[in-house]
Amino acid sequence: MEEIIRIFPQRLQEFCRQAFERPDRPEELRIRIGQPLQLLNGAEELFWSGKRFQKEREDTYRATGEDMQEILSAMSRYSLYAFEEELRGGFLTIQGGHRVGVAGKAVCQGGEIRTLRQISFLNIRIAGEQKGCADGVLPHLWNREQIFNTLIVSPPGVGKTTLLRDCIRQISDGNETHPGKRVGIVDERSELAACFLGRPQRDVGVRTDVLDCCPKSQGMLLLIRAMSPQVIGVDELGGAKDYEAVEYVLHCGCRILGTIHAGSFEEMERKPYLSRWLGEGYFERFLFLEKEAGKRRRFHIYNERRERLC
Fold it and tell me: Is 282 found in the same domain as 194?
């Protein structure tokens, strides 16, 4: 909590403090110049009156340009220019591993975003760990002394990244049954390890090396060459280059733990690379994650023949 409170100006720290004093931990805090300060927690949406949270938008505190400038200065340690590479990706990671999405005027060159200026919108995503959430999953992912090549599959917002992080931590640390493995993480969006100044803010295990803010396709190849991982963890596989890099990693004998956005095998088959993986048996475990009522989640695991294991 204190890591987030300290980036707010004094006049807004009560907004942040009260957000964390609520029974449920907030998921997002949103600041938009000229609009009410907002707290999001699942389906709940609340606005800040200046003294308390309320559901109504009337009589609320509206964020000012001065508020935004002070928050940005505190987040970047008064050197926003030093974070231009992160801004290009649309976010900054602050101490504690909390990721702050930013939006404003995009400065483009050669058809690509170079940086963001006139930042007017912030989305502070509260980082959290759920250690042990992979306890029921991992027994199905071990193949004697190796990990099955595994894809965690679900729609956005169900908890793939949280589950992947805990799988990586436990595989890296090892236990009395399975010795720890060398794990490499390609953390393109700073969500898995949540690095701040190059150091992971989340517990990803004692044998884990992290490439932060690196494109997945390049990072996987670099890790193979430089760090000789036994397992690579990668979040949100998407583009053709990602899939080509995954195939290279698999042919090098390294294991893959990855996540993708999909809701079923049928949906996966509509994606060319995934369809080929399904046909050729590149992956041996498919973990489908679903959200139930409230914040509960359940999973189903299938093998490469699409036989349900649990």
Answer: yes
Domain count, the chain: 2
Close Cβ partners of 41 (under 8 Å, ≥ 6 residues apart) = 22, 24, 25, 26, 27, 28
144-173: per-residue pLDDT in tens? 889 999 999 998 878 899 999 999 999 999
Q: How many CA atoms lie within 13 A of 42 on its CB side?
A: 8
| Nearest one of 275, 220, 261 to 242, comparing CA atoms | 220
What's the count of helices (H) and strands (E) in the chain, helices before strands? 9, 18
pLDDT-derived band at 293, boundaries 50, 70, 90: low
User: Nearest 5°: phi and psi at 231?
Assistant: -140, 140
65 in helix, strand or coil? Answer: helix
3-state secondary structure of 181: coil
Q: How far apart are CA 283 and CA 257, in angstroms?
A: 10
Same domain, 99 and 193: no
**pLDDT digits 0-9 by tens, 184-232:** 999 988 889 988 888 898 999 999 999 998 899 999 999 999 999 999 9
Q: Which residue do the tokens 């975003």 mark?
A: 113
Residues 148, 291 within the same domain: yes
Asked if the structure places residue 309 within a domain, the reply is no
Q: Round to whole Å and give the CA distance between 257 and 14.
A: 41
What is the span of the domain harbouring residue 98?
A: 2-125
In this structure, the answer to whether residues 79 and 184 fall within a common structural domain is: no
Residues 146 and 98 in one domain: no
One-letter amino acid for residue 81 of the chain: Y
Is the same domain home to 121 and 149? no
CATH number of the domain bearing residue 75: 3.30.450.90
Burial 11-44 (b: 16+ CB within 10 A, else e): ebeebbebbeeeeeebbbbbbbbebbbbbbbeee
